[in-house]
Amino acid sequence: MAFRVLVAAADPGFRSALRDLAEATRALLPVPIEVEDAATLAQARDRLAAWSPDVLLLDWHLVPSGLLGALEGLAVEHPGLRLLVLLPESSREYRAAAWQAGACACVPRDRIDPEWLQAILCVMHRAKEREAQIRRQVA
């Protein structure tokens, strides 16, 4: 089964670059990856409900004044979803708050690269596999 990544960013150029970056991880990971994108939080919520991705790669600029509340809501609405947040360099102090709100990881948006994304997606995929294994053992 494919590992699904939803890229959410308001800026079309940045969203396209993030999508390309996520697509590029295919060559680095031994699992199939599917990538979709969203330009607004409402669009992201619609895609989350319809497509059920494993990971949401969320740009801080999508909801700059309410991202922490949005993260909390997304974590409640989609408890199995892994949230990756791209922070502006000037907002790095929000890492702890984003973690408390439900994010799995934060990275400065200008420092994301294929190796980092490959590593974090690999860890998240393994966690998903382990969780499924534990659920099977408990059932």
Plain-language structure description:
- By secondary structure, this protein is an alpha/beta fold.
- Helix content is 48%, strand content 19%.
- The chain has five helices and five strands.
- It has helices at 12-24, 41-51, 67-77, 95-101, 114-138; strands spanning 3-8, 33-38, 55-59, 82-87, 105-108.
- It has a five-stranded parallel beta sheet with strand order 2-1-3-4-5, with helices on both faces.
- Strand 1, helix 1 (12-24) and strand 2 form a beta-alpha-beta unit.
- It is globular.
- The model has no long low-confidence stretch (mean pLDDT 91).
Oligomer status? single chain
Overall mean pLDDT stands at 91
Termini separation: 21 Å
Q: Percent helix among the residues?
A: 40-55%
Strand order in space, largest sheet = 2-1-3-4-5
What is the tally of helical segments?
A: 5
- Shape, please? globular
Structural class given helices, strands, pairing? Answer: alpha/beta
Q: How do the helices and strands follow one another from N- to C-terminus?
A: EHEHEHEHEH
Beta-strand share of residues? 15-25%
